[in-house]
């Protein structure tokens, strides 16, 4: 598989991750019982932070939507990298590596603090980014696809 395709797959997976995080995590309603009680406690207890009155609910929502924004931007970046990889994938490998490390770390974090859904998504995204690192570049591909020397000789 070419780097451009694996980056496009990573882009789609990341966009789906952003969508599910936003719809399910940020816009979803807490279930009756313990979830509603926890949310109510997060909303009612307000405290002063750098001159602003905030609650843990404010931080929860702000950081949650921040994650949705970051995932969406990452999806757009991966799509653009997929386009750029068609001509210059070798020079982009350090970026693929940084994003692969990011999503591997997010998978560890999600495993510790959340649940299996984001873990699976982040492992798949990290795998696609890792694949892009090791996919042959167009120069390397041309080395493997060369015609035998006898066919290249022009007479």
Helical content (DSSP H or I, runs of 4+): over 70%
Can you list the strand order of the major beta sheet? 1-2
Tally of separate domains: 1
* Strand fraction: 5-15%
InterPro entries: LIC_13387-like (IPR058068)
Transmembrane segments: 59-79, 114-137
Keywords: Membrane, Transmembrane, Transmembrane helix
How would you describe the overall organization of this protein?
The chain has one domain (3-30, 56-140). With 155 residues, it is mainly alpha-helical. The chain is built from six helices and two strands. The mean pLDDT is 91. Helix 1 crosses helix 3 and helix 3 packs across helix 4. The protein has a two-stranded antiparallel ribbon. It is elongated, with a radius of gyration of 22 Å. The longest helix is centred in the middle third of the chain and has 58 residues, at 56-113.
């Amino acid at each position: 598989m070419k780097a451009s395709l694996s980056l496009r797959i990573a882009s789609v997976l990341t966009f789906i991750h952003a969508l599910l995080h936003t719809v399910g995590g940020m816009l979803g309603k807490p279930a009756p019982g313990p979830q509603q009680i926890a949310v109510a406690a997060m909303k009612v207890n307000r405290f002063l932070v750098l001159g602003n009155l905030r609650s843990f609910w404010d931080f929860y929502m702000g950081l949650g939507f921040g994650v949705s924004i970051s995932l969406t931007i990452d999806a757009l970046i991966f799509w653009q990298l997929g386009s750029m990889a068609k001509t210059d994938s070798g020079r982009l490998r350090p970026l693929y590596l940084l994003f692969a490390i990011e999503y591997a770390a997010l998978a560890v974090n999600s495993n510790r603090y959340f649940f299996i859904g984001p873990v699976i998504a982040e492992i798949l995204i990290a795998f696609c980014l890792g694949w892009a690192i090791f996919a042959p570049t167009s120069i390397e591909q041309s080395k493997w696809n060369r015609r035998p020397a006898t066919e290249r000789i022009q007479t």
